[in-house]
Amino acid sequence: MHYWLFKSEPDEFSFQDLLHCDERRTVWDGVRNYQARNLMRDHMAVDDLAFFYHSSCKQPAIVGICRISATKVPDPSAFDTSSPYFDPKSDPSNPRWLTVEVCALEALSRPVTLKEMRQLEALADMTLLNNPRLSVQPVEASHWQCIVQRAET
């Protein structure tokens, strides 16, 4: 099993929005960064776990836990001409943008804020703290455990 972190602006799509989706799941659409796409396409597996991170807001924080429920899903927004993520070069028979489906498992007992994470030596080399622009990121098992424990305190 691998661990991940998905970033979303809560005014665009929040963890609460995911909880209200049919079966608490959705296709993680609109990713247009090749590094993030490659992580989803080449490395994610069904039943991997992911943190849901609220970004670009007053208090950025990890707020929930998701499970990867499907992989190598063609991103429907790439084919939707009304979507800001439409890609005229993406061919439905050979899609350029593959993504995953995520399913909400639970909200954290309390959010673990970016400010708090920056203060923890155990997270000093966490991708989020060193490559903050990447919208989909791997999370080391030790970082995962540290954050889960912090959320329970």
TrEMBL record:
Naturally occurring in which organism (per UniProt): Bacterioplanes sanyensis
InterPro entries: 5hmC_binding, EVE_domain, PUA-like_sf, THYN1-like_EVE
Protein name: EVE domain-containing protein
Ranges where the EVE domain occurs: 3-149
Highest taxon above the source species: Bacteria
